[in-house]
Amino acid sequence: MTKSLLKTQAFIDGTWQQSKTKKTFPVFNPANEQEVAQVSDCSAEDAKKAVEVAQAAFESWRQLNPKERAAYLKKWHTLIIEHVDALAEILTLEQGKPLAEAKGEILGGAAAVEWFAEEARRAYGDFIPAHKNDARILVTKEPVGVVGAITPWNFPSAMITRKVSPALAAGCTIILKPAEDTPLSALALAALAEQAGFPKGVFNVVPTSEAADIGNVLTSDLRVSKISFTGSTQVGRLLMKQCADQIKKVSLELGGNAPFIVTPSADLEQAVDGLMACKFRNAGQTCISANRIYVHESLFDTFAKAFMDKVKALKPGPGDTDGVDIGPLINKAGIEKVEKLVANALENGATALCGAEKASDLGDLFYKPTILTGVKDEMTLCCEEIFGPVAPLYMYTDTQEVIARANNTEYGLASYVFCNDNKEIWEFSDALDYGMVAVNEPFLATELAPFGGVKQSGIGREGSKYGLEEFMEIKYRLLGGL
Ligand code: NAP
Q: Given ligand 1 and candidates 150, 155, 250, 288, which is best to mutate, with the most ligand atoms within 8 Å of its CB?
């Protein structure tokens, strides 16, 4: 089953193609660092070709009735669900997360496809009472045009469906550049899109090891009307600069530095379980992972003990092995970053309750689930995304103090509060300067809600009716002399 979806060539104009340069690049399984495939290494020339065909396909795709576009998306959704096991296997193979998590990601990504298939028919406009009796004001929504999408490796499937399905539902066509570490999930989704019968050129995938070359084409070509990017704030900033000359539209889903606050009124067990899910999913490599855990002094020791008991029971290992809770980190750079952040914290007075080293018996990219106490706001791991299975516990005393500390970051993506006091719930959810606030819940992402950040965590939203609007322009028509 997996084999038929294991594609290694670029998907351009509805056909599987070698790169013009005929070059390939390797994809590795992070669990054992073995090569699993050689994938076509697209160049700027391939990207230009993809732009050309996406532009050609746009005119007829946008003319389809939304119900017809929805039918293609529904077919794609059905096929993704039918192939969930094979897609999850491919995801785990190249990304490393446990199979059950990979399956959850595929299903979550498929839910976005279904949602936007439904939303395609609800791109409503307005009929506005006019300023003159003989005039009418109409507002309609139109597709922005050809979209360039660039996605990261940490959710190699869901980050794609979240962009591709609203873009296609809106009537746009799209060129996707997946992450170098994880192109296979993107190509497998394209294989199912091919089976769903999307017209040629509507959805194109250009894998590459030369991200900047493809990025340059997508940001500088006037035929591309919009860039939708998920990844680091650093690269988001660069792409936004590149888009500035053409006033090209951008949606940016960038990094986070999520606070996770446990107040005196919290249900301790619920908070510990919430933190387990929020911190260790995907080995801590998510933009909404709890990065700074603030626990009220009155329950700090009890919380730390209960948390440690659960963390010690976690089982790291290869994602395709039964019973494994945590897979490897994605690559050498990923594990080196985590080691550096932990070393810096320990050198500056933090204490490790558990972990704080590689799980070298499993392989070079495994890191033991780690809890740190005695951490301070000045430490590097407080300011940067850890992106690993490391949970630093900070003690706090006062509500206003913890709100100020939680907001003291350039990021503003996800935040979490565990408390059972009504007044506190409103106080925290009003004051936290984040695009998303979750109260007594670790799972924020759903296709039904607007996912995205404020400050340097990005621009725009994915999911919900707002996610469709990211791919639409507003047209105002004034009909006079009536
Ligand atoms: P990244 O280094 O920014 O890479 C993201 C994508 O950008 C990859 O496809 C990468 O290609 C590409 N890229 C890198 N340099 C580029 C350039 N000069 N021009 C065009 N494209 C370029 O981020 P990452 O390490 O893959 O992902 C982790 C980051 O993503 C974290 O900061 C995380 O918080 C963020 N993230 C945010 C969200 C959200 O919804 N807000 C969701 C998931 C992840 P290569 O792979 O070839 O380098």
A: 150
pTM: 0.98
Residue indicated by tokens 């990979």: 102
Residues 6+ apart with CB under 8 A from 292: 257, 258, 259, 260, 382, 392, 394, 405, 406
Sorted by where each starts, the structural domains of the chain and their CATH numbers stand as 2-254+456-479 (3.40.605.10), 258-446 (3.40.309.10)
Ligand 1 pocket test target in 210, 230, 257, 281 with most atoms within 8 Å of CB: 230
Q: Are 295 and 304 in contact (CB under 8 A)?
A: yes
Say how far apart CA 292 and CA 278 lie, in whole Å. Answer: 11
Task: List, for residues 84-115, the tens digit of each pLDDT value.
Answer: 999 999 999 999 999 999 999 999 999 999 99
287 catalytic? Reply is: yes
- DSSP assignment string, 137-149: EEEEEEE--EEEE
- Pairwise CA distance, residues 102 & 320, whole Å: 10
Q: Is 172 a catalytic residue?
A: no
Report d(CA 469, CA 463) in Å as an integer. Answer: 10
Quick one: pLDDT at residue 4? 85
Distance, CA of 162 to chain centre: 8
- The conformational region for residue 123 under phi > 0 = left, psi -120 to 50 = alpha, else beta, is beta
Cα–ligand 1 centroid distance for 211 (angstroms): 10
Q: Which residue pairs, CB below 8 angstroms and at least 24 apart, start in 219-224?
A: 219/148, 219/243, 219/246, 219/248, 220/245, 220/246, 221/48, 221/51, 222/246, 223/51, 223/52, 223/54, 223/55, 223/145, 223/146, 224/51, 224/145, 224/146, 224/147, 224/148, 224/175, 224/248
pLDDT, position 474: 98
pLDDT in tens, 121-138: 999 999 999 999 999 999
